[in-house]
Amino acid sequence: MASTYSHEWRAVCDKFNNAQDLSEVESRKDPENDPFRSKYKARELLREIYCSLKNFDVGENESVNDEADQRPTEQPVDGGMEEGFGRGHCGDSPAGSRAAKLGAVEYYLGVNHVETEELSAGEEHLMNCMTLLEKCSISPENVSLFIQVRNQLGILWAGRDEIEKAQGFLETAEAMYIRYMKEDGQPPMDLTEFFVAEEEALPQQERTKRFEMAYTHTLYYLAQVYKNLEQYEKAGGYCHSTLQRQLKFNQFIPLEWAINAATLSQYYITKNLYMEGRHCLSAASVIADLAGEVPSEAAAQESEAEAEKRDQLRQKRAEIARCWIKYCLNLLQDAKKLLEDNIGELDMDRQAELRATRLQEEEEKERGRKSAVLFGSTDTFDSICGLEEKVSCVFPVDFEEARAIFLVGQTYVNQAKEYFEMDGHVTDHIEILQDHSALFKALAFFEEDMERRCKMHKRRVDMMEPICKDLNAQYYLLVCRQLQFELAETYYEMMDLKLAVANKQDDLDAHTVKKFNHLCSSSTRFYQMFLDSVRSPEGKWPEKLEDEVLRPALVAKFRVARLHSRLISSSKTVQLENLNRSLECYNFVVQYCKDNPEAKSAIETELELSEEMVSLLPLKINRLQANLASSNGL
Amino acid sequence: MVEDMKGKIRVFCRIRPMSRAEAAQGGAIAVGRLDDYSVTVETSRGPREFQFDRVFSGESSQEDVFQDTNRLIQSAIDGFNVCIFAYGQTGSGKTFTMVGDRDQRSPGIMPRAFNAVFDILQENATKFDFKVSVYMLELYNDRLQDLFVSGAEAQSRRVEIKRNRKGLVFAQGAETKEASSAGELFAMFQQACANRHNAATKMNVESSRSHLIIGIMVETRNLTNGSVSFGKLSLVDLAGSERAAKTGAKDDQLKEANSINKSLSALGDVISALSSDLPHIPYRNSKLTQIMQDSLGGNAKTLMVVNVSPSECNLDETLTSLIYATRVKTITNIAQRNLESKEIAQLKEVIMKLRSGQPVEDDEV
Question: What is the model's pTM?
Fold first, then answer.
């Protein structure tokens, strides 16, 4: 650059700095009734800069008939990359440099218009920038601009609901980054450096950081684009990459990053990608710890700010614990689905099968997937690995393995409950308890010993029954119904187990019968409670059941029917009473479906069986009655 | 089975009549009511249909809309936890729906609810003793503020809404006032709105907009047997803030991060949206989501009224509102289990035996 205009050049640089300052700093102070005041001023300065630049170098330039002069026709589809690495001016030549500078001003003008809600003008400037760059080969001077202008155009077109166009720009930017890093890789100049003196150039490290941040934005926008295109898997991958890069380049807020990673883990769980899920959760836990110490209760009393910080930290960490609970629970439940036979018991053949597949998968995993998903810088990596080692990411096949996962889940339950205490966080607290109960239920599946299994179910009952009694049933209607139903089912399960144990030992003594009947009645009691909750405040059963209670209510009636008939009694009178009650319930189901035929599809199997029982039970009842009559000497 | 019993939120959609300004701009209509339950929207990619529990067109009256909500008021007095949310962008008719016109010649849901509460209580005055108390809060910038207190003092106090197992709700840090008539309630409401306006003008452009939260607690004591029940009616007026949705930003617009230092704040929203059934969503970025969650949890009686404009020039905002409203309705699953439960298998065996005349042990049936 000739020094003849170094004076003018200085002026341009100063002007640029002013424009930046107006745009970023002053604009925040603009009043509400004139919110773009500073940005308009900045715009004027940028325009002046543009003119000045155009006037420099006239004569020195080879291609004076500036393509840049002509307002280019709209090129909505970006074909810019292929030309980028070869044709036109070399990026470092004076012509290339000039084009880049003009392009940068066009870029800032474009962004300025977008920020002041003038999208068409913004688009025009951004497209100009792109066109200017097309004349040059890609160099460290212009690659950042190349990428960032496409980021902006991506946002712009997405805002106009033209997702595919946005996708085009962003994917080009992505490809350019990859190619540049492969073929060149030098820390590129940052956009702000176009208008600074050489002494004020950024250090390499800073250049790298900003360039990488620009690319992280590209990935972040692509994640959104793919989500909008409903390509969820791809979107998930890009979210993951964004998170990875945030960590790698140390551009993250710990709690925010941790929560995002924890949320991503939940997505992976829905896809049965437990290895990735575990990695996300471990990273989330480690990074959440980086957010600092929790202020003490005393400190929280003193200062509002400390109180908020304390609450925030505790809450977020408890949320991460809940994500871990879901991880453990889903891992156990998914394993159960693979291992169970058609009546819900562990199938030995399937168990063997799963063991075999697991071995295979272990090897594959070691090779492929793992490296792609790793989070972390050198400091955090070890901590993350450490956490991962504490819990498995493969389906458990036997009790020992299941138990290990259960215990991890239980630890997180206790952690989560510390923050989500009952009073103040009723629904959250109960959700956690329900998860805890579900953990026990899943573990019970793997337990072979029926007595021990029964004890696990007892733990569930002990956990939920007090709450169920304690809660205001009207206020927490939905939750109470869930608890009632779950308790009824659990007692039912325990009843079956008690009987199975006794039958195995061929030992159905009076004590066991009493126990059995007690469990049976308890189950009935809770189904009944649930059914009562469907009644109106005056105690009337609704003529028509609402959608969300239809199936559960009819199933409850069906189960109560069954329960009544299973009560064990040596007295024939009592037996008769029980059978009659049973028949009444089966009848209810049948009658309701007759009166409301649309309900049939909700309860097909149970209806079928109820109809059978309605026709068969009376015979049995009659026989019993006859028996009773004869034994009474009639 | 427990998973089947998901909470169901009823959603009504109300399309307002075209405004003069819209008519002046050409009056192109993009939103129409197909029938009592469906809305159709003409998007740039073709027509799109949305299903709701009720759809009201521009011709519907305030009375029409309130009729369907009246039952909920009764439930609140019966001791249930009832919530009515209104959602919609500014200008969509949300305020008209929730509050009514300025002169109150066409009162909206809130004033009608105030009247309905006291009407019902008066009807039962011989059977019940009652006490009505209310808190009115504003939520903006993620902080709850007491609207019974004005300006600076409101900003300095920390307010939290907490529930305990008995269903007793307390707005910690905020004033709860007693009301003995609908008129009193309405006067309090007007005062609260006045305070709200003051707070709002101090906001700068970047902050999220404000939401109004009214909690009416009704305590009834049965004069015959002395039993006491607590019910609550929450009326929430949600501003059209994109933060209201757990899944965040306007569906088709990317969240920008122009300045290199700005954090990628919407990344969590994107992740949350990857699947509609994440086991747990820790991404509660706002108090609003928290409050809504609390109101929905354990609550079987929630109503959301989403307001939209019929005209083409508001299409983007309308779509955002409708899409959000659709997400808010949780789907009740009637899970078809493919495998038979043990119990069914056992019963089938019993039936088989009975049918074939085989002896069935008395305790096997």
Answer: 0.81
